[in-house]
Amino acid sequence: MLSFAKVNKMMKYFTMEWLLACQDSDVSEKDMNRPAKDYGRYYTSIKKQLPIQFVVFDKSYSLHDAMLRKLNFNVEKQQLKINLMLAIVHKKFIEGRKGTITYTGVTDFSSSKRIEKPLAGSDSHGFLVYDEIEVISPGVFEHRLLFESGIELNITFTYSA
Q1: Can you give the pLDDT at residue 16?
Q2: How far is residue 126's CA from residue 11's CA, in Å, rounded to a whole number?
Q3: Which of 103, 110, 116, 161 is within CB 3.0–4.6 Å of 80 for a Cys-Cys bond?
Q4: Is residue 9 in some structural domain?
Q5: Does any domain span residue 7?
């Protein structure tokens, strides 16, 4: 059964406010790099608690610059599928590769828009610019995705090995 417990519901490290501030030339390099360092430390501290499939995917692919193709939430099965066009960067070119992330045990899903004017002028979600995962409690995770349009997707899901 779906439970709509209150969780963070916003990016914690790579916030839209930070991303907008980085567009300003007055932002120091230290401030620009702080979220990556802070999140990197957090991710390292939780990595052993994450589903192995997530860790393998995260190591193999980057969600940066991926495009949302389709999203399907099956409430009855507590399953969310996100179809993406991944940007695979090679030495001399970028290859588009279709990929699907399937979340099972989904207990909450939300989508919200944080800004009125998208960074790149896109009416759609646009490019996925950052993602982060958080351990809410043992076996409960929240994956947050931030798109250049200002749209954030938040997926809370359970996993047990």
Answers
A1: 76
A2: 17
A3: 103
A4: no
A5: no
